[in-house]
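Thought: the user asked what Macrolide-efflux protein looks like in 3D. I have the sequence; next I should run the structure tool and report back without guessing.
Action: structure_tool
Action Input:
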Amino acid sequence: MTDESEKMTAEQKNLYSRFLFIWFGQFISVIGTGLTVFSLGVYVYQQTNTASSYVFILMCVFLPPFLLKPYGGILADRYDRRLMMILGDLGATLGLLFIFFMMLKGNIQLWQIYLGIATSSVFSAFQEPAYKALITDLLPEAQYARASGLVQLASSAQYLISPFLAGILLTIIDIKFIFLIDTTTLLISSSIVIWIRNISGKVKIDQHKQNIIADLKEGMKEFSNNRGVFNLVIITMITLFFVGLLQSLFIPLLLSLTTVKTVGISQSICASGILIGSLFIGVFGSKNKYVKTLSISLFLSGIFFANLGLSKNIIFVTLAGFMFFATLPFINTSIEVLIRKNIDNRKQGRVWSLISMITYLGSIMAFAVAGFLADKIFNPLLEVDGLLAETAGFITGTGENRGIALMFIISGLMISMIALLIWQNEKIKRLEYVESQDSGIDLSFQPG
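Observation:
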């Protein structure tokens, strides 16, 4: 019995080390993606000077995965999840190379930039569900929170490291070479997964005889039958609408306050809040009481969010942003663990894809209206002679993009109200006390 226990512990360590290799590859590729998104966002905004053109970059990033993720999740349940990650990373290079060659020809058009970004984003619809489900394959429940913290740490690199690097690189090289750097990081990431796949051997896959529609219905049934998970996902979707406004309008707001270089530094400092929170969770893990942690963290995030609109001082805005981002790992980890332990591992690929689609609907709606709200409604209201200049203007100040500041204040207060709703929701509270659907290790990776 002791030998079996020790063998199991060794197997756990082996699987965790493989997860770390895969995680490192994703960390590298996220940095490359961040370089592209930041550089293109600044480039497009400076060319057009409208928030709408910048927001459309984000729409091209998020809309294709939003539409295709359910199918990506089904494929992640039907086929080797490592293979899905490889195809996703390699496919994403196509759009980047398209933008690169169009820029080499000269006089690139906005639609060509949007097309290239959208093409790369299509493949993330197949990569991301497989990556999320692979975590459950490799790790036991006790390591879910730690893995989630590390995943968020990698995700934060897009905002922590990438803006700083992009600000430096854009002073040294032309923007078109940023896309070659991003392509290289994707090749590194896929190479690591190929290596792990080769040393791990074959994967046991349940052969599905039913069609895609039946798979979708089964995933929807698994998701909708758990009312606690359903309520949590809907609340998350609403929250992501307001966060989507921040994501789409933060750079335009900062560009009206300072230079591009300082914007990159400010965004990196803000994102270091995610780094601190993710490192804390990654090193120490997360205790129980996820619902309490979620409610308190979400409430505080709303307060810090609102503070982004209270001042034109870049130091104050950066500090508020740092505090806001520091709460996100605790929010994300709580939501992910509560959902992961309540969903059958055999259906996690399609369920995660459905959850991602529903929650991202909030972001998509924000991207769809953010530019219009900023350019046509809120910003004109807070110009020097705007209708709200003498009322709300006393709080936000008046001038360029102060309407965006007012949008941030309103959004932050709404998020804090949502936190109070979560605290009062009994169905969400019950998720805390449900045993995991699959608490042991999924030993799918057999030696070749």
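Thought: the tool returned a structure. Summarizing for the user.
Final Answer: Structure for Macrolide-efflux protein predicted. The mean pLDDT is 80. Residues 169 and 202 are 41 Å apart (CA to CA).
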